[in-house]
Amino acid sequence: MSKFILAKKLSMTQIFEEDGRVAPVTLVGVEPNVVTRIKTVGKDGYQSVQVGTGSKKNSGGFKYLREFKITELNEQPLKEGDKLDVSVFESGDMVRVSGVTKGKGFAGAVKRHGFSGMPSSHGHKSVKRHIGSIGQRFPQHTLKGKRMAGHMGNVNFTVRGLMIARIDNDNQIIAIRGAVPGNAGGLVKIESISK
Q1: Residue 55 is inside which H or E element, if any?
Q2: SS3 for 88?
């Protein structure tokens, strides 16, 4: 059965596992998730569940609406108006987490792509972090996809194969082992994957 939820990234911390090892975890907080729409093949051309969370200040609507595609509606006994919380997951579940990465603005090739830059001596002046040649005489134009300076970050990114370390039902917090994309306070989609 597919498990999914919308959450907000809180912070990173560390926990002690049963064998005494320290594990890095990301804490995500879950506000009430409400099923706002069930999409079907007959009506919409595909099957998915639309979930809303958060509230807008003056309108009363949901701040975030996201869709989760599912293979079979029969396996998901959900209907519009149902509420989801952290109890849909269990400790040890494998998940994929999607979010918007931190924006870095306009970045050079050294930061953006890991270029090594130019030598600091032997005739190189004021070109330490330049990218060097961007092509050759033929075909007389820069090839598409050439790694250069440009906008870095602020893109949708999915991390797969993370494990839920712990669940706090009282405070509606999930501890996910490893790093999760985005800033603290950013929205993340958590979906279960098969082991």
Answers
A1: none
A2: helix
Sequence spans of domains, the chain:
4-120+147-192
Structure tokens at 9: 């990234």
CATH entry, 4-120+147-192, from 2.40.30.10, 3.40.50.300, 2.102.10.10, 3.30.160.20: 2.40.30.10
How many angstroms separate the CA atoms of 117 and 121, rounded?
Answer: 12
pTM of the predicted model as reported, rounded to 2 decimal places: 0.89
Strand partners for 28? 9, 174
The string of pLDDT tens digits covering residues 98-148 is 999 999 999 999 999 999 999 999 998 899 999 999 999 999 999 999 999
| Identity of the amino acid at 47 | Q
DSSP character string of 181-194 = SS-TT-EEEEEE--
3-class DSSP assignment, residue 99: strand
